[in-house]
Amino acid sequence: MLGYRTMNRPLQDQIRRVTDRIRERSRNSRAAYLAKVERAIEQGPGRAHMTCGNLAHAFAAAPVADKTRLAEARTPNLGIVTAYNDMLSAHQPYERYPDLIREAAREMGATAQVAGGVPAMCDGVTQGQDGMDLSLFSRDLIAMASGIALSHNVYDSAVFLGVCDKIVPGLVIAAATFGHLPAVFVPAGPMTSGLPNDEKARVRQEFAKGLVGREELLKSEMASYHGPGTCTFYGTANSNQMLMEFMGLQLPGASFVNPGDDMRDILTKAAAKRALEITSLGNDFRPTAHILDERAIVNGMVGLNATGGSTNLLIHLLAMAKAAGILIDWEDFADISEITPLLARVYPNGLADVNHFHAAGGLGLVVSELLKGGLLHEDARTIAGDGMELYTREPKVSGDKDVTWIAGAGISLDDRIISTFDKPFQDTGGLKRLAGNLGAAVMKVSAVAPERHLIEAPVQIFTNQPDVRTAFQTGELDRDVVVVVRYQGPKANGMPELHNLTPILAVLQDRGYKVALVTDGRMSGASGKVPTAIHVSPEALDGGPIAKLQNGDMVRVDAGNGKLEILDPTVLDRSFTAPDLSDSHEGLGREMFATFRQSVGSAETGATIF
Fold first, then answer.
1. Which of the two ends of the chain, N or C, has the fewest CB atoms closer than 10 A to its terminal CB?
2. CA distance 506 to 130
3. If 0-12 CB within 10 Å is exposed, 13-18 middle and 19+ buried, where does residue 222 land?
């Protein structure tokens, strides 16, 4: 699709070693997966095996011209899986996309149909609410719903319309499961910049202190989240978009174009056309199984570290890789983090938002710098063509609303936002694995000041967020403290994000106390300056050591050395009794997810039911 030529360093040995380790670990599961995919490919397009009655049902409602093409089965039919809803700002733009995609298909003499819709939760709406208990489980439900959409077996390729936290991972799991089909991911872009993120954080902290009221807080929030598109901080949604480019499932430079920009519609049509160009009916067949290999997964891990991405992806990427027969673990992330420099400063790791990041050179510049440093598999296969060099380029309007890709800026237009491989913001990546006698955990360290990488303090135990807030308001936490919030793991209550704790803990830290959070739950992809050991495994409900802690026990959270430890090992000899968690298993649909809670795996293995 795109040509390239540049000089880059050879692949670094540690990247090669980690990739080889993953390949060896995954030998059997990957072989079984590829064998399944090859059987499906050998059967040819699904429509060739259908009865006339099957086919008549599949295109009964199609326009006459489309119906003729579908009946002849000589041109590809594109399936659209959409996570559209108009409550979720990032997904509201998708309302128009099916029409654009159908139009693009007809321009190529092909067809496109909406195969199905999938649910799409907004974690911003459910933060601190009971609905958040369904958030993580929605990922696997989205994968299953996508599977139902594609099971009609009348599609030669698929486009996936999704952006946010659990939605993209769920769609990727489905795309990998239907690995015999090509898959192109189509973003909607970030909302335009509103109230600066640091100002929003300041108002939140003042509200936590009781210095401003709810009216001023709401005014601030509405000035931050004010229009169509993703939230502009570098949380899970925007980390997802980065991953789709680094893993070769999205067109180069497509991630951070605003919904109202003319280029957005042009890229959407280009994505549809590309999905139709790479079917088995053409000369450039690129099934998803051949894109999602060990190289793509490692490239994604490098990108996550180099940009200080969301900790949620340390769960999701495991589940995505597993769907393609690839087995990765947190040690792989840790080893890659050791040699991956932090090249981006985007809120909460800096003051810039993703629009500023995109303007400064964006993902294309980060890819270019990582290639120069020998940190990416340059030869990875992508939907755009062969080689990651394609992803250093940026899209430009060409002719009559067409798109072409040209060389990117090549240098940072703001070195406070994007730095170079030779002069990074820090020498190691933004994510850290912690392990010790308290279990395994992860921490996003890119926004944590170095002097706070080691916290040693007595613990205060909680089993929910409201009790932490009450303890804060009564002054019980005005001291050096490790706040432990347990029974928040996937088996306990679906592993909700605990983002509402961020302003409280930030206030305590600003008062001069040494503060850390330890939890078997999750934090938002926007987790910031407070050291936070999350995803603790085994979780409390599984008998993990976190369940045996008592108020006053001393715990060390040491990001520098990757340690998470109870200082008195006799704590491990205690017995424990799990609290009654039934209140978090009822209401707002939580009753329907009992089977998920019973069958879900640990965070350390992707917290998946598959």
1. C
2. 24
3. exposed
Map residue 444 onto helix, strand or coil.
strand
Judge residue 168's burial from the number of C-beta atoms within 10 Å of its C-beta, 0-12 exposed, 13-18 middle, 19 or more buried.
buried
Q: How far apart are CA 246 and CA 369, in angstroms?
A: 13
The dihedral over CA atoms of 533, 538, 544, 549, expressed in degrees to the nearest 10, equals 10
The model's pLDDT over 467-524, given as tens digits with 9 standing for 90+, comes to: 999 999 999 999 999 999 999 999 999 999 998 898 899 999 999 999 999 999 998 7
Structure tokens of 95? 């309302």
122 appears as a binding residue in the annotation: no
Q: Hey, how many other C-beta atoms are within 10 angstroms of the C-beta on 413?
A: 13
Q: 172 with 121, same domain?
A: yes
Token reading at 141: 């439900």
- At 332-380, the pLDDT tens digits run 999 999 999 999 999 888 889 899 999 999 999 999 999 999 999 999 9
User: Distances in Å between the alpha carbon of 181 and those of 45, 217, 272, 292?
Assistant: 9, 47, 14, 12
Annotated binding-site residue? 164:
yes
CA distances in angstroms from 175 to 142, 322, 387, 607, listed in the order given: 11, 12, 21, 19
597 lies in which domain range? Answer: 431-605
Residue 398: count of CB within 10 angstroms of its CB? 12
Same domain, 174 and 273: yes
451 and 304 in one domain?
no
Residues 360 and 234 in one domain: yes
